[in-house]
Design brief:
The protein has 310 residues and is α/β, with parallel strands linked by helices. It is built from 10 helices and 15 strands. Helix content is 30%, strand content 22%. Helix 7 links the parallel strand 9 and strand 10.
């Protein structure tokens, strides 16, 4: 059993390269897998280890970095390693919204603890916004939430401008926002404040922390939660979900999707079959063959590109 930790914190880093080098060395020595993004605005990532003690030591190291003493962490389990390797990457933004004037360190909405989230959602005139992408929304979300139908998080500011919210809306409406681990809704809340919204709230620790803190019988969540690793999704008890992933487009797929003529393992699914060329399919087939050969030899293959959002 592997222990998994999703983590992030917005906190100014003077020398991201130095942090990248030290993190890579320390986490590699602890046999940590996963991806961590490091930038001048903070740290964001998900990591896993087979030995719980090694994961704890990695988190102690991370929390020992200046400004990261209260690093936000959510735990879950995986029966197999959800990551192929360890990656520590430098990024201009640890979650990309495409506007560097948005700074959660300086301006942010009001955090709502998971145990208080249900009460907020039951208030009148709540504008509940899912800040995740459309494919994430499609497999699970909070009841009555708004889907901005974004393909990438950087599409969110455009969606917001297209809504034409009035000054009265911005002054009076309560905006409640959420995402997987809390980082996207935190940055989105900063955007909303910059745009003049007065009453902006976001779920502290995101959906994963809500699953940890609120029992299923009291939950306002329907479905599963998409995660950016090989588990694809998790259930409310944080066990691995029922979805698989198309390695052609990285969309979640069901067993029924796999039974269609437009599903080719590791190549395409009904979501992307008509969107890719024969040349692309041929390239994906070659990659899939190499992955299967590597598996037969009990070797690791890099596989498709991994993503971190939380």
């Amino acid at each position: 059993m592997f222990k998994v930790a999703a983590l992030y914190k917005f906190s100014e880093i003077d020398n991201p390269l130095e942090i990248q080098i030290s993190l890579k060395k320390t986490l590699k020595e602890l046999s940590i897998y996963g991806t961590i993004l490091v930038g001048s605005e903070g740290i964001n990532g998900t990591i896993a280890a087979e030995e719980k003690e090694n994961l704890n030591r990695a988190l102690i190291y991370l929390r020992g970095l200046k400004g990261f003493e209260d690093l936000d962490i959510k735990f879950s389990d995986s029966k197999k390693n959800p990551f192929i390797r360890l990656k520590i990457k430098l990024k201009d933004e640890i979650v990309t919204i495409g506007d560097k004037s948005i700074d959660p360190v300086k301006t942010v909405g009001e955090y709502v603890k998971p145990e208080d989230w249900n009460s907020l959602l039951q208030e009148d005139d709540i504008l509940l916004i899912d800040t995740r992408n459309d494919y994430e929304y499609s497999i699970g979300t909070f009841r009555d939430s708004i889907n901005p139908k974004t393909k990438k998080f950087r599409d969110f500011p455009k969606w917001l401008k297209e809504q034409d919210f009035t000054k009265e809306d911005k002054n009076n409406k309560k905006v409640a926002m959420f995402c997987t681990g809390g980082i996207r809704c935190e940055k989105a809340s900063s955007l909303m404040k910059n745009e003049g919204f007065k009453k902006v709230y976001h779920l502290k620790g995101g959906i994963l922390k809500y699953f940890e803190s609120v029992s299923k019988d009291k939950s306002l969540w329907d479905g599963e939660c998409f995660v950016f690793d090989d588990r694809v999704s998790v259930k409310h008890d944080l066990s691995s979900g029922d979805y698989d992933m198309c390695h052609g487009c990285r969309m979640p797929i069901t067993e029924n999707d796999k039974k269609t003529k437009k599903y080719i393992r590791g190549v395409a699914c009904p979501n992307c079959f008509d969107q890719t060329t024969e040349e692309q399919k041929s390239r994906y087939k070659s990659r899939q063959k190499q992955m299967e050969l590597a598996k037969q030899r009990n070797q690791k293959h890099l596989g498709p590109k991994e993503e971190v959002l939380n």
